[in-house]
UniProtKB/TrEMBL annotation:
UniProt organism field: Oreochromis aureus
Identification of the protein by name: USP domain-containing protein
Keyword field contains Nuclease: yes
One GO CC term, this protein: P-body
UniProt GO BP: mRNA processing; nuclear-transcribed mRNA poly(A) tail shortening
Reactions catalysed: Exonucleolytic cleavage of poly(A) to 5'-AMP
Keywords in alphabetical order: Cytoplasm, Exonuclease, Hydrolase, Metal-binding, mRNA processing, Nuclease, Nucleus
Length: 1106
């Protein structure tokens, strides 16, 4: 494997003055600047060539040469050619280059794939194999195509392995494909453990498969037995094999690399003593020469060599000059004399321990193009510059057409200038009307089209919405223009906010909402808990948008989400290169599985009820299981006649479309859905009776239907898009003969009648009832409640929206009325729509991704009472008593039982923040600035102060630990210093965000009143919604109408005589000052005086100068 599966978002502390103990002072570039005299630099200050090799000490690895392929484009794969003295590199954009020998002279450069990155490379005798996401290409070393093999739709390949003439390919799917390179036919498909295989190795006895889950599977080539090693719970980064030793590096469950390697003895099939190292291991390779040496490489460039059975020595650490970039690939030559490093800036470095380096023990000479013959000059040759001869003049294009005779008659002359009206210009405030045939250019299947759909074909409400930031930020942005309902939208500018639509879908499923709001656990990153907090915000909000940043923060810290590709980088989000339809379907599968796992252990047995009993008391009962999971029976029939049967659960189903030859026929949606649920397919699986892989017929039968049927539409290519388009046309032709105009172009039914034996579709939900016989056989009516389409736009990558049928209980809570209504949810845009619009899909711009059918009246058997509706006396008060300060210098005193907040109590509140990313802005020529993406803030400190009682001072003063990279601590405004948020070195009371959030929300749920200065922004970043009648914000109390907001520093100086916020800010000081200001306001209000001052321009004067 050439690249890791997870890139950490932090930068370790690195001092440029640190001298590696493994290098002599004369070989250190910082102590000996002469080493840089022959190194060229490009505009990004990256080394591009070394004309003369530096001195290399025998037995010590050091840099020979470095090349920049394409600046700024990450190198995703490197490979030493096994037949020739060549080094290959592939980058993120699908481009490859090759270099000759230790001098790294350019040999070839060509494009392998238009968009996908190069994942893996393997050299053959006649060419080189290049693996991308779903494509395998074989090219000559000069760049000619030998063959191009495409995998099936949905494949996500990561690695390949050569075995004689057979090639194994694995990726993020539960199978490994074997392809015969002679016939280019798939011979076998091995079933492996989900979520797939990303690294493959081979020895004389074993196949080794590395899984993203942190496991390594061994398959014995002689007995076909398998052995599993659970190496790291947080995921696998790399492993390598030599002799009887297996070395594995990976991640802990908290995210960062563990500073040790797991070493396994393959003779005993058990773990040996772990090898502790001094770097964060990301790449691991054996470099056996005289001993079994290990090379451990970190992403920041530290390289350590050590023995797998000994102790690591600090003197064996080298450093690769990455110029601030991350290493993304690492490779060792077959001769073990050369190392190749590729980084995220597009640079490839070649290291060796000898000057006369050889990549292979025996290599062939590469084919070199013959030099062009030297052109000898004589006077009979033509001039190199073209002379305008008659033939050249005749070959030029036609000259510009002459001026029309009417134009000179309208010329007006003023002074020395003449003017004439342009007859071809468009009049002011008018636009040209599109002519005939203009709409014919709209592509029929834009999922695979190179042309962008015309923007005017997409209604405004479906387009991607953005927040326009002014000099006041987002305060003057009119969200009510996009949402005139009382339901809350979600802000889209947060990283990975593409899942906003599915968050709304889960919220409007009443049993899910109550389940996560009742869930409570001690895990730091629990998606069920975070969804419960977010849903409580959506309950309290009266039409104002909310932020899901805490939920997305927890999502980013779950290793399984990273391995499934659900965490997007900034580049992927801004460029719009992600296929959002596939992405949201993977996210849907992940979130259902994650909620099932997180809620199963601590779920209340009273979570749902049946008509015959008050509750289902079995400990195995689960709301998620009852809601989404179908019990299926899987039958596998081998050629030998042996049939195996096993049962499993499925939380959703993928649509499988018929293979149509020639003209596409009309199909019934219910029939296709039935074949997709009761699927029958052929595959190669292991047969215990035959003791080998055999073709088997696999059949899936349903034993229990869920309450909510979730369907992934799988419209991932032009073929599926064309299928939906044709079915919509058939539906339109049928509806022309009917009076129901709303159901035109609607192929999917509004209601399904389903039983374990048959599925029948209905076009209208009105008046449908089940007969007694149908109820006896277990039939049920399923109504369409959710559709999630992907809105196409090649300029921005499109966006995801949701059509949701909102039930009566939600309308009753928000509006006080009992009705059902379909709504469009497009981030913070919410608009009521007709039911037909939710089921219409014009695949030229609106592609279906997810459908949800819910059993009619399914919610009656669930307990829909959440803790937020419980008596407040049931709220636990030990949140404050269980916290302990491990430091002697305590900064707060927790609340006692008698001090628990009550309705109307005052609580001083202030929070400090750090910056996780800088804002992206555009500076215009007139000097104005437009913010494109705001800076991402994260809460770093929260302080709550008692507002009454004999005990004064804070009862919460928590510093929030963070595992994400902080780009600016904002020390001048926050008082946060580097190291304050690290629990291992901080002298502060550092805790998790979830723990502090629980303590912070309790007073507000008990109707206490928070007092602070500028609380609106604090609540938004903390992800807290407090009813406006509870909030006491001094920034609004001391503000004149239509005037600027006054700073806390000025108000404290003028009204209280306090000089605060000197060098830095302190949240304890600010919250106490806000409480004093509020009491001062009450005094002024009773006196009826007006003490506002404007002559000082709301600024504290310079007291020292006075």
């Amino acid at each position: 494997m050439n690249s890791p599966h997870w890139t950490p978002h932090w930068t370790p502390h690195w001092s440029p003055h640190w001298t590696p103990g493994g290098l002599e002072p004369s070989m250190n570039s910082y102590l000996n600047p002469n080493l840089h005299q022959d190194v060229g630099m490009n505009t990004q200050e990256l080394a591009v060539t070394v004309p003369k090799p530096v001195h290399v000490k025998k037995g010590m690895f050091s840099e020979l040469h470095s090349k920049v392929s394409e600046a700024g484009i990450p190198v995703t794969a490197t490979h030493f050619d096994l037949q020739r003295e060549m080094l290959w590199m592939g980058n993120y954009t699908g481009h490859v280059q090759s270099f000759l020998g230790p001098t790294m002279a350019h040999y070839s450069s060509f494009q392998v794939h238009a968009t996908d990155a190069i994942r893996h490379m393997q050299s053959l005798d006649t060419g080189v194999l290049f693996l991308s996401k779903c494509n395998l290409g074989c090219y000559t070393r000069g760049g000619l195509v030998m063959f191009d093999y495409r995998m099936e739709e949905g494949a996500d390949m990561r690695s390949l392995l050569m075995t004689d003439n057979m090639l194994l390919m694995g990726g993020l799917q539960n199978y490994v494909v074997e392809v015969d390179l002679n016939t280019l036919q798939e011979t076998q498909k091995f079933t492996v453990e989900a979520p797939g295989v990303t690294i493959m190795r081979q020895t004389n006895r074993f196949f080794f498969f590395g899984h993203p889950s942190g496991k390594v599977t061994l398959r014995d080539l002689r007995t076909f037995r398998t052995q599993k090693f659970d190496a790291f719970p947080g995921g696998l980064s790399d492993f390598d094999v030599h002799g009887n030793l297996l070395a594995v590096s990976g991640f802990s469950s908290r995210g960062p690399n563990e500073r040790f390697l797991m070493v396994y003895d393959l003779r005993m099939m058990r773990a040996a003593t772990p090898l502790w190292v001094h770097v964060d291991p990301c790449f691991v390779r054996f470099i056996p020469t005289y001993t079994s040496r290990l090379a451990i490489i970190s992403q920041t460039g530290e390289c350590q060599f050590c023995e797998p059975t000994g102790l690591a020595n600090m003197a064996d650490i080298f450093h690769v000059n990455t110029n601030g970039q991350f290493l993304t690939s690492f490779e060792v030559s077959s001769s073990k004399q050369a190392l190749a490093f590729g980084d995220s800036g597009g640079c490839v470095c070649l290291w060796s321990d000898t000057r006369d380096v050889m990549f292979n023990v025996y290599s062939r000479e590469p084919c070199v193009v013959d030099a062009l013959p030297q052109l000898t000059w004589n006077h009979n040759l033509q001039h190199c510059s073209p002379i305008p001869t008659v033939q050249i003049m005749l070959s030029l294009p036609q000259w510009a057409p002459g001026m029309e005779p009417e134009i000179p008659q309208t010329i007006e002359t003023v002074g020395f200038n003449s003017y004439v009206e342009n007859p071809y210009a468009c009049p002011c405030n008018q636009v040209w009307t599109p002519g005939h045939g203009y709409y014919n250019h709209v592509p029929e299947s834009p999922t695979q089209s190179d042309e962008e759909p015309l923007l005017h074909t997409v209604p405004d409400k479906y387009r991607k919405v953005t927040i326009k930031y002014s000099k006041c930020g987002r305060e003057d942005f009119d969200f009510k223009h996009y949402n005139r309902t009382l339901f809350a939208g979600l802000e889209p500018q947060i990283p990975n906010a593409y899942c906003n639509c599915m968050i709304q879908v889960l919220y409007f499923l009443e049993p899910v909402r109550c389940l996560v709001q009742n869930h409570s656990c001690h895990k730091e990153f629990c998606l069920a808990c975070e969804l419960g907090f977010l849903f409580h915000m959506l309950d309290l909000s009266q039409g104002d948008p909310c932020q899901a940043s805490n939920f997305l923060r927890a999502l980013r810290n779950i290793p399984e989400a990273k391995e499934m590709g659900l965490i997007l980088s900034n580049c992927e989000e801004t460029t719009g290169t992600v296929e959002l339809g596939r992405l949201i379907q993977r996210w849907n599968h992940f979130i259902l599985y994650q909620l099932f796992q997180e809620t199963q252990e601590q779920e209340d047995p009273r979570a749902y009820r049946t008509p015959r009993s008050s509750s289902l008391g079995s400990s195995g009962d689960s709301v998620i299981r009852e809601l989404f999971c179908s019990e299926v029976e899987n039958r596998s029939l081998c050629l030998c006649g042996i049939e195996t049967v096993h049962s499993s659960l499925m939380s959703l189903f993928n649509m499988h479309y018929p293979d149509s030859q020639g003209e596409m026929k009309e199909h019934d949606f219910a029939e296709i859905l039935k074949k997709s649920i009761c699927l029958q397919q052929r595959s190669h699986t292991w047969c215990e009776n035959c003791d080998k892989y055999h073709p088997t017929v696999q059949t899936r039968n349903i034993r229990r239907l869920p309450d909510v049927l979730v369907i992934n539409c799988e419209v991932n290519s032009s073929k599926e898009a064309e299928f939906w388009k044709v079915q919509a046309e058939y539906a339109f032709n049928k509806s022309m003969q009917k009076t129901d105009q709303d159901q035109r172009h609607v192929w999917i039914p509004a209601t399904l009648k389903m039983s374990l034996s048959k599925v029948r579709d209905w076009r209208s939900a009105a008046g449908l009832r089940l007969s007694a016989a149908e109820e006896a056989e277990g039939a049920s009516l399923y109504d369409l409640v959710v559709t999630v389409p992907h809105i196409l736009d090649s300029g921005t990558g499109g966006n995801l929206v949701a059509h949701i049928k909102v039930g009566e209980t939600y309308h009753q809570r928000k509006e006080g009325v009992s009705r059902q209504q379909w709504y469009l949810f497009n981030d913070f845009l919410i608009e009521p729509i007709e039911k037909s619009e939710a089921a219409q899909f014009d695949v030229s711009w609106k592609v279906p991704a997810i459908l949800c059918y819910a059993k009619r009246n399914y919610h009656t058997k669930y307990n829909l009472r959440s803790k937020c509706q419980h008596n407040q006396s049931e709220v636990k008060s030990d949140l404050y008593r269980t916290q302990k300060q491990k430091k002697t210098d305590a900064t707060f005193i927790p609340l006692t039982v008698s001090e628990m907040p009550r309705a109307g109590d005052l609580v001083g509140l202030d929070a400090e923040f750090v910056k996780l990313s800088e804002e992206e802005a555009v500076l215009h020529s007139d000097g104005t600035k437009s913010t494109i993406t705001p800076s991402q803030m994260s809460v770093a400190r929260i302080t709550c102060v008692r507002g009454q009682g004999p005990t004064r001072g804070p009862f919460i003063d928590d510093y929030i630990s963070t595992q994400e990279q902080v780009v600016d601590y904002l020390t001048k405004y926050s008082g946060i210093e580097p190291g304050d948020l690290d629990a291992t070195v901080s002298s502060k009371h550092v805790t998790t965000l979830k723990s502090t959030y629980l303590k912070l929300t309790l007073p507000h749920r008990l109707r206490s009143s928070p007092v602070g200065h500028g609380l609106q922004n604090d609540f938004r970043v903390i992800n807290l919604v407090v009813p406006k009648d509870q909030v006491i914000d001094t920034v609004h109390l001391f503000r004149l109408p239509y005037k600027r907001m006054i700073s806390l520093k000025f108000l404290a100086w003028y009204f209280l005589g306090l000089n605060i916020q000197g060098e830095t800010h302190d949240s304890t000081e600010d919250s106490c000052t806000a409480l004093k200001l509020y009491r001062k306001y009450l005094e002024l209000y009773q006196e009826g005086g007006n003490h506002y001052v404007t002559k000082l321009n709301w600024k504290v004067p310079d007291l020292d100068a006075r």
